[in-house]
Amino acid sequence: TKEDMKYLTNYSCIELLSMFGGALPEWDAALSAGKPVFLMASDATHNVFNKHSIGRYCTWVNADTVNTKKVIGAMKKGCSYAMKIADIKGESLTDRTERIKHKLPKLNGFILKDNTITLELSRQASEIVFTGKDGKELSKVKGSAMAQYVIQPEDQYVRASIYFED
Q: Measured at the alpha carbon of residue 100, what is the angle toward residues 97 and 105, in degrees to the nearest 5?
């Protein structure tokens, strides 16, 4: 529960998105309690032959080498982001694979300089939302591929959620 997240210790990541649901309120509760935990997303599928249960949730990790130590280390430092991938009705597995490989939006840059967060995307988002303590919306930008937020002294943490039409 959200209440449990205030007291839970000895973990560094939370599964934010999966086919079993989302954990955004729980993540905000952990961050609001001062727990430095980061996110991940996973299909957690048990049927790889069901095209609707694969390629729906993923974690993008910024690691310089693809090995267990580097990937887990990057995730524990927050060098990753989670994504829910649209399940388009009637799309073939071949088309879905092509879309996932080449057409998904990407985070091109996330820069923290002084007290300003700047994020840049590969394409225009319908909405970029910056959120802080207790899940409070701090700022919202609509119809842009770039957004900035100036961190205020009272901001315990700031996270960004990015939404696209699909």
A: 165
